[in-house]
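Pinned message: reference record for TonB-dependent receptor
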Amino acid sequence: MLKRITKNYYKAFSMLLCAMLCLASGFAQETARKGVVKDAVTGSGLAGVTVAIRGSSNSTQTDASGTFSISANTGQVLVFSFVGYEPYELAIGQLTSLEVNMQPSDNVLEELVVVGYGSQRRSDITGSVASVPKERLSKLPVNNVMQAIQGAVSNVNITQSSSIPGDAPSTQVRGLNSINANREPYIVVDGIPLSKTDGSINDINPNDIESVEILKDPSAVAIYGVNGSNGVILITTKRGTSGTPQIRYSGYAGIEEPAHMLDPVSPEGLLERYAEYARITNTSLFNGGPVRNEYEWDNYQNGITTDWFDAVMQTGKVQNHNVSLSGGSENARYYVSVDYLGQKGIIKGFDYKRYSFRANTDFNATKYLSVGTSAFVTAHNRDGGRANLTQAAAMSPYARMYGEDGQLTRWPMYSEQLWENPLLHTTTNPERREFNISLNGYAEMNFGNIWEPLSGLKYRLNAGYSYVPKRSNEYHGLSVYNANGWGRILNAESQTYTVENILTYEKTFGLHRFDFTGLYAARSKYWQQSEAIGEVFPNDILEWGSLGTASTHKVTSEANLYRTISQMARLNYGYDSRYMLTLTARRDGASVFSKNNKYGLFPSAAVAWNIHNESFMADTKNVIDNLKFRISYGVSGNEAIGTYQTLALMDSNPLAMGNLSNAALRYRTLMGNDNLRWEKTAGFNTGIDFGLWGNRLSGTVEFYRTHTQDMLLRQRLPRITGFADVWSNLGKVENTGIDVTLNSKNMVKDDFSWSTTLVFSHNKNKITDIYGDGKDDLGNRWFIGHPVGVIYDYTQVGIWQEEEIAAGLNRGWDEQAEAGAVKLADLSGDGIINDDDRRILGQTAPKWTGGLTNTFTYKDFSLNIFIQTVQGALRNNPQIGGASDELGRRSAPADLGYWTPENKSNEWRSLSNRSNVYGYGFPKSASFTRLKDITLSYNLPSDAAGKIGVSGVTLYASGRNLYTWTNWLGWDPEARDIPRGHTQDNVGDNTNYPMVRNYVFGVNLTF
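Predicted structure (tokens):
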């Protein structure tokens, strides 16, 4: 018995060993094939090309430089496929280094485009859906994907008002559709919303992004209902493909500097300013001059000057490192990446670090069930005390930085106590931490693989959980001259749950094609915040780590819960690839509204006609490759208000009664409103898509008009009611505009090509009604027939001169005028300057924007040049306006002149405190044209790359914000510039940060 068992085991072991040897022999014949795939016309590498072995599940994709690596046997056939290109097949020989040139296909209309809860062929799209150019995503080193989109997509206005490391730009799609409501577009990542989770676009690592689509017209955004009124941005991240695992490294490093340096007044120029101010105000300087203050006097006597901009600024540094691993089999695919971004800001203390991890997986559990994840974790670190640019701009070059004890002075221009030392808060060590932990997954069932008659029917479950904790800890003690000590701990967090049930059905009957999508979704977000403040500490040793040792304490906390329920149905119908129809209806319910109006319905309809597919167009095939007409109409919504705003709420306040402290309740100043309704935006869009002469010239032209009504405005109430205001459905806003995108292949040679992309957009925004009585709201600067954001001010016509005052020309015009004062137009003609002389001078939003991209390729080199322009915007210039009582003290910009009896300027006012008694804001054009970025890249030939042990190498150098043409006096027409003291406790002063120019060098490697 034992002998028979042993014999059977020996036989089984022999068979297993034989199988293993045969398998090993088979693997031994496989060879790693490395290569590069290029555009046969431009010669540039193609990213995302699928490389598969015919008859096998083994496949891979090319990286950002077009390189790939795959194991294949001699005699097998590699199949190359990519949207917009003709398929290519290559029989494997003995070569291990391959170069493939793919020909662009004329049938680019077959490209699949993400449209929300699915995708469509570009030829079947009926709404306005813009795709961000792939090269902007893959070949531009940016810290935030919005920086890559800026100026590259028509009527998507992205403003980088703050260059503070870690700050995200603001985005508007097709103008302002609301006054009080949120104006940012809705962002969805891999089908799960990022917006309204307290997450930020900065949480998404740009290296992980595969594609970005922007839904702009009401028909396209209506599928997102209450979330779609400001446009929708759909981000799709990279996923794994079956085949040999690929390791990719992308990294860059560079330096940053101010894009424009606002030079301060020279020491000599400031002394002249002091002398003139003393003459005008009839005041004496310190010790008879020429300086104003004690500390200035000491440094002046010793010939000591300080460049305060140099003191608070430094050469910024930026670096980014990303490693990703992707691959898988036919039934299991993965994409994993880790990323580190580090920035050392150009102003001391503005440092930023971001750590991110992403894991995208896809599994075919059975032939009818697939599951997957789209999970990521991001950590942000903005720790450190920061220098203050606003304070530095005010410092006298003779001001004293350090005291006799070697410590930073508190008042560098003592005895003047208006300006603190701009480096003072670099001695503190606050913590600013933020995290985003998002665990998202899906399960999809294909009923057609269970029972063939159900072919085309699918059910998908999307589920997401987002946890966003934040904390901010700070302490101010002796280092900032707070003898008592002040500490604070602020913790906030939000948890968001999303569940979406999606049912889709696709069917084709002859020339008829149907596509139905149904949705039932629910969402819940819980937010809470707690704050503890302590004052008067025994010492500074533990800082905020021991608030309990403080003599006085203050603790506050708050929380809220937000929930939505949504249903949606969409039907796409197509006939013979010529006529397309899309019908959509979405119903949203949100907890922010009362039971009377908790739900809103948002329908839309769109049609499209592929004219080039008509038989009567047959004779134009050599000229017209694509000609499609689209028209749509739809309604989207905006909830616009926070939680509990429709309720009559009460606050608890301590009340002393007898010897006891009791809690007393009182109504808040906001009145409740059970009848509050949704804010709705209805819009019309029509567009033409075209491609001519083999798509040598292609593009899109669109015209749109949107109308927002039932706007949610906070209406003022008479105080006799006991309330200050109430949320009401009032006002209407209209937007009209045009979008243009043109693509041209200007020159196509064997080794050289030149292509151009031009985008242009114009938007006209106006308020058509406010309170229903046809009257303007002067206090809020809202005017019927004009844009939401306007400059309403006087009109400057010059500067009052001495001879004019002496001749009495100011009488019957401006009785308060003195020589050197701003001369304002008496537009009402009543002989006095007052509010009746104010007029609407312009709008704060640009009237039109444009972008021009030129791409040149020569063999393995590629040069990309992008120019952006923003025209027609008007802004009050705080550098010119400043605070009138500080003109004689602060070290104003060197370019800012002033009137004197000698120079008799007719542009600049005098240094007198009365030179601008009417508070004129000095509005100036904020228009500019900017050389936004230049990138030069080189793809190392595959045979050369193979010699160093990698399958692909791309080297590049890139510059951003290289030069700006503008008449704006200041750091930059886009940059935020908050005057001193215009925010509580002057905190906002420390948010001023110049626009940054950077130069980076990078490399992409594929192993």
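Pinned by admin. Summary line: Residues 1-29, 982-988 have pLDDT under 50 and may be disordered.
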